[in-house]
Amino acid sequence: MAIIVQKYGGTSLQTTERIRQAANRIIGEREKGNQMVVVVSAMGDSTNHLEQLSREVSSCTNGREKDLLLSTGEQVSCALMALALQEKGQAAIAMTGEQAGIEVEYLHGNAKVTAIHTKCMKKELQKGKVVIVAGFQGVAANGELCTLGRGGSDTTAAALAAALKADRCDICTDVDGVYTADPRVILNAAIYSYMDYDSLLTMAEMGAGVIHPRAVAHAKEYQVPLVIRSSFSEHEGTWISKDTSISSVAGVTYQKNLCHVRLFGRRMKKEKILRRMKDSGVIGTKDVHAHLDELLAVVKKDDLDQTISMLDSYKDQLGVQTIQTEIQKAAIHLIFVNEEEKRKQTALMNEKKFMPLEDVHSIDSHPAVWSVSVQEEYGSDMARRVYDVFMTENHHKFPLAY
Ligand code: ASP
Ligand code: MG
């Protein structure tokens, strides 16, 4: 019997009606003779709601109780899903991350999965049950519940699929697959019928949003066949595997709600600063004037406070004299399939072509990505322009499903 892991995201479980619909899909797979392990996210927006509740009573952004609180969202979904399946006559059992045997490092709010003990799940599968696992959580060696960071249910699914040596891991979401760009911004963006792990990983790291990057890295490491597909449509989705190499460019991503952090200082230790910024999740940087002692970093608005306090605490040590911030920035990323392809096309990326606007900066973000940051108001136009030049004309070269 094949083992299939399916993950359902928040939108796919937004209402009890949708939970019942997803249950029908799971039964459909079960009826094909597959053993099913299902990972669920919290219903709809409920994790945000729980976060809001915690903010109303406390300024603490991470910690034991916050993890306990946030992990309840997934537990609600998994219990409801098991009940829905049982109601339809399908034997099912709901498990928390701990009950499913998911061990994580002891780090509240952003733990990594360290081990998965599959015995319990396998025992239930043997009995013919569908196993429903609460995503985004696990237990540390000291018995504490820790969450995997926002979007962590994807990682749960990839990790379970690897540990169970699953035949396939489906990420069931609210879009039909991996697009060449965000179709809400770029109307002629198209869906890949297949692509390779590395391209998807870079797309995910640069804000594609369709899957959590950690999940892709995990799937790649263990060679888990991954499918990104819709929970609602019959579209076949995007199949991800090792060497289905695509054209030289994989796609364009667009990120809003960003800020600029500008650092000034006569004797700034630029290298050190840049390294530290990279470690703390900065999107891109630019050495603005090599001799004028200015650095620019692009960060998410949500990460701004954290970045500033990190910089503040090292300010003297790093030689930073002044820090300025600017809001309402956006970034456009052109994702190459690898570094080599990016290097080959440097000539084409003639900055002038894309930089007639004021205040456009090319920034260093990722070895296989060409990135610019712009004022948010020009962001979507810029993204369309980049897409047109690099992607539209080349659509015939991609394995696209229309
Ligand atoms: N519910 C969590 C979140 O919204 C985890 C997940 O959905 O993957 O971030
Ligand atoms: Mg969610």
UniProtKB/TrEMBL annotation:
Catalytic activity, EC: 2.7.2.4
Functional pathway: Amino-acid biosynthesis; L-threonine biosynthesis; L-threonine from L-aspartate: step 1/5; Amino-acid biosynthesis; L-lysine biosynthesis via DAP pathway; (S)-tetrahydrodipicolinate from L-aspartate: step 1/4; Amino-acid biosynthesis; L-methionine biosynthesis via de novo pathway; L-homoserine from L-aspartate: step 1/3
One of the record's GO molecular function terms: ATP binding
Keywords for the protein's UniProt record, in alphabetical order: Amino-acid biosynthesis, ATP-binding, Diaminopimelate biosynthesis, Kinase, Lysine biosynthesis, Nucleotide-binding, Transferase
Pfam families assigned: AA_kinase
GO CC term (a single one): cytosol
Catalysed reactions, semicolon-separated: L-aspartate + ATP = 4-phospho-L-aspartate + ADP
Gene3D superfamilies (alphabetical): Acetylglutamate kinase-like
Domain Aspartate/glutamate/uridylate kinase: 3-230
Entry-linked SUPFAM superfamilies: Carbamate kinase-like
Residues engaged in binding ATP: K7, Y8, G9, G10, T173, D174, Y179, R184
Recorded family membership: Belongs to the aspartokinase family.
Protein name as catalogued: Aspartokinase
